[in-house]
Design goal:
384 residues, Rossmann fold, 2 domains, 7-stranded mixed β-sheet, 14 strands, 16% strand
Amino acid sequence: MKKSKVPSALSRRSFAGWMAASALGAPAIVSAQSSNRIVLGQSAAFTGPAAQLGIQFNAGATLFFDQVNAQGGVNGQKISIARLDDGYEPDRCAANTERLIKDDVFALFGYIGTPTSLAAMPILTKAQVPFIAPFTGAMGLRDPFNRLAFHMRASYNDETELIVRQLTHLGLNKVAVFHQNDSYGKAGLDGVTKALADRKLKPVATGTVERNSVDVAAAVKDIVASKPNAVVQISAYKSCAAFIREARKAGYGGTFYNVSFVGAQALSDELGKEAAGIVVTQVVPSPFSASKAISRDFHAAIAKSGGKVQANYSSMEGFMAARLFVEGLKKAGGRPTRESLIAGLEALQTFSLGGFNMSFDSSDHVATNFVEVSMLTGDGRVRV
């Protein structure tokens, strides 16, 4: 299973993002050096077209931390998340990261997206703050190696390789790519292009959409005209749903494949009955199967919370990321520092997270390359 790895002057947009975070009930940021509390900082989309990704990931992580805190925390220290809304915009994420670091969060955790995470990386690197479990598979965050960054999920190269392998195995060699016009979309496009090139193929067409937009008309026109067997989508759930609807209206009858970042449940909710047959790759175990202990633990925690969290892949990933952080924190000593957290995560080596195998070491901070294929149904379910 192991792998193939504020500023003081506020802009209006940054200020609006911080106000939105406050409205969402973001906890007051207190010093990470408190003797009885560890505060993690999360900048993510909690409003806008990618909001469900941040909301669901945060809900899953909070579910696990609440469970740990109810048992006394880790070495008597309770864990909380200070969350700020960036609306899936890099400039807001950069400002949020500056603020979180200024307010002395212990580590940065669960950032959502490639362009936002890339904006945060030079800031956190300069400040030497650990960056745990970003919700992105972009190679640009993994290569070159950064000792501060710990990735729980497989890369987009891993996901797109599986997609292309499955398509070509079925004899579907005419593949088009619909992608977001930013670093996330480019990362996915590069993955598809590489996987096709390895088979002496190339995309028959590409089409783009701007981040946080559903203006897909030009992309639909260009891609449908190429008559592809399948369209690989590298964007957020609202734009992917818009593309699927419009392509079908234009007469396209082929298949649609998405990488995990789309958020399977969010895409299903957007499409309703039209979701039937849409394929989504997944990088964590199914939250709907009891085959692994981590899934059973997830459902037990949801039940104990009174059903406050929806079981889906995004919330499952948040739950697992929180558990991963806690495992590292346990090895970081009774009075953990950022350096001892890094050492603690690396000391995990090869380990099982509730039956899901992972590994870290001092030169490799990508826990796994696990990818599997799921399919959406017309009644809101996700089947593996």
